[in-house]
Amino acid sequence: MSLTVTESSAADSAVSRPGPDGGLPPYSHELTWPEGLEPFKVVDDGSQGDPYAHYAWMRQNAPVLRAYSPVSDVWFISRYEDVRKAMRAPKIFSSQVVDPVPLTFLTLFDAPNHIRLRQVVAQAFIPKAIAKFEERVRENANIYLDRMIGAGGGDAVDDFAIPLSMSTISALLDVPAGDFEKMKFWSDETFSYFGRLARNAPGTGTDEQSTFEFFAYLKETMERLYAEGNDSVGGHIARMWKEGLLSEKEAKELCAFVFVAGHDTTTILLANAFRIYGEQPHLLARIRQDPEDANLFVEELARFRGTVQRVSRITTGEVEVAGVRIPRGAVVRLLPAAANRDSAKYPDGEKFDIDRDTSGHLGFGHGVHSCLGSPLARLETRVAVELLAARLGSIVPDQDKPIEYVRGNNLTNSGPEHLHVLLEKPHA
User: Fold this and answer.
1) Please, what sign has the CA dihedral across residues 113, 115, 117, 118?
2) Quick one: pLDDT at residue 1?
3) Domains of the chain, with CATH numbers?
4) In the structure, what pLDDT confidence band is assigned to residue 406 with cuts at 50, 70 and 90?
5) Span 239-260, mean pLDDT?
6) Could you give phi then psi for residue 111, rounded to 5 degrees?
7) CB 322, CB 58: distance < 8 Å
8) Which residues contact 402 (CB under 8 A, 6 or more apart)?
9) 361, 425, 406, 378: which is closest to 87 by C-alpha?
């Protein structure tokens, strides 16, 4: 099987030149990278926390990049049209990268199981259903922002983004989240366990035990929700389990997936909203003057600093992308965050501009695996963007505490792990 996603000449692509091993392109570490950029790696060593300079070079010089790992080669695809078309070709770029699928996480399934499982929770994430949570999101956001304003600032991740996103997804599932630290730990460990099983990531050493503790907690919670006749997403999953439409394993793992996916990606998006306001302070006044522009801010944020960096696929046949032949059974990482800055699609794509046309951005995925929770992420981020503008006169990065990035593992998601800011109210 061969699919030409885009055409590209050898002169256009450094990676399309035949390599020393049978015509395959050279590895990432064999290419000449610009000074200050280490070769792009499968597992981050701390050099790829903010990977956009890597992406810019890859789009120009190696739009299909082969990287070495001890398990298998990994192929990274970075241009907009290539990534979009691959996302729309699930029969060629399969999501089922591990067989049998080890966890009931929607991102690991192709049809028909993907469709069956997605339908279990889809109705809970339609905009009409999500809109019911806006008042609660706004109330909680004010509480967390009050504390930061009172302290003159703080960590936008720990003090605002994590508690807001976790309280929201907990309410949606009706899973108690009074102990944020424990729930955050379980969530991170589950994500690590998922990465180790499905993405050849290194793991933490304790992730399996922690994940199964989380599953046991969720089973106990679903038993309660079923007994109560609860109409939350968690209650719906519990009923599907008790009625035999889901196995116990599927129910626990699907509930965990909704929890992890529902807060982790939004946490980073919320933190990046603080970052953009710090970099472009004039936007605070603009959104304060016209709160409707918060919607433009959110879409440009998802394009410019979206959370999801790597989308895993495996090829079901040989496929040609940007003049490079990728073999059958190859592990592929689509890079939506790189694609979103492709100036061939978005002129001056490295610039944050809320007045640009962001239609077609891949910040919430594309095709059959488009992000189920995007209405919730959009709601939480819009509320935060509006609230920060309404209540703050300035957001200034704390120069004594530089940004710390999510690092290591498989970097499915990337962004600030800690982002310290100084906050001031508007002057009277």
Assistant:
1) positive
2) 42
3) 10-424 (1.10.630.10)
4) confident
5) 91
6) -65, 150
7) no
8) none
9) 361
